[in-house]
Amino acid sequence: MPAITREEVAHLALLSRLDLSDDELAHYAEQLDVILGSVARVSEAVQLLGQGQDIPPTSHALPLVNVTRPDVERPCLDPADVLGQAPAAQDQRFRVPRILGED
């Protein structure tokens, strides 16, 4: 017996305000059935491997620590040089074409 039926997919589509064709409903029901079966197999493996032990959930396969670098001020490009290479500049900023009709 499938874990999810076509009718359940149709109900989920209705709740999600998705207009799916009959072919799409059947296709998604098959795909969701495979996904739910895979999740069930993973759950079974966790139960077999855990055997009563608490296995902490992980968000990453390797333990991570703070991997950011310190915020150190460094020399950067001169604003005049950068603005000098721009097609248009105004008031120490890049000038770009107006895309909205607002003031």
UniProtKB/TrEMBL annotation:
Q: Which UniProt keywords apply?
A: ATP-binding, Ligase, Nucleotide-binding, Protein biosynthesis, Transferase
Which Pfam families does the record associate with it? GatC (PF02686)
Instruction: Give the EC number.
Output: 6.3.5.-
GO biological process: what's one of them?
A: translation
- Chemical reaction(s) catalysed: L-glutamyl-tRNA(Gln) + L-glutamine + ATP + H2O = L-glutaminyl-tRNA(Gln) + L-glutamate + ADP + phosphate + H(+); L-aspartyl-tRNA(Asn) + L-glutamine + ATP + H2O = L-asparaginyl-tRNA(Asn) + L-glutamate + ADP + phosphate + 2 H(+)
Give this protein's Gene Ontology molecular function annotations: asparaginyl-tRNA synthase (glutamine-hydrolyzing) activity; ATP binding; glutaminyl-tRNA synthase (glutamine-hydrolyzing) activity; transferase activity
Enzyme class, first EC level, given as a word = ligase
Q: Which superkingdom does the taxonomy of this entry point to?
A: Bacteria
Taking the record's annotation, the residue ranges forming a coiled coil are none
> What function is annotated for this protein?
Allows the formation of correctly charged Asn-tRNA(Asn) or Gln-tRNA(Gln) through the transamidation of misacylated Asp-tRNA(Asn) or Glu-tRNA(Gln) in organisms which lack either or both of asparaginyl-tRNA or glutaminyl-tRNA synthetases. The reaction takes place in the presence of glutamine and ATP through an activated phospho-Asp-tRNA(Asn) or phospho-Glu-tRNA(Gln).
Oligomeric form and interacting partners: Heterotrimer of A, B and C subunits.
Protein family according to the UniProt entry = Belongs to the GatC family.
Q: What is this protein called?
A: Aspartyl/glutamyl-tRNA(Asn/Gln) amidotransferase subunit C
Q: Which organism is it from?
A: Catenulispora acidiphila (strain DSM 44928 / JCM 14897 / NBRC 102108 / NRRL B-24433 / ID139908)
Tell me the organism's taxonomic lineage.
Bacteria, Bacillati, Actinomycetota, Actinomycetes, Catenulisporales
Q: Which gene encodes it?
A: gatC
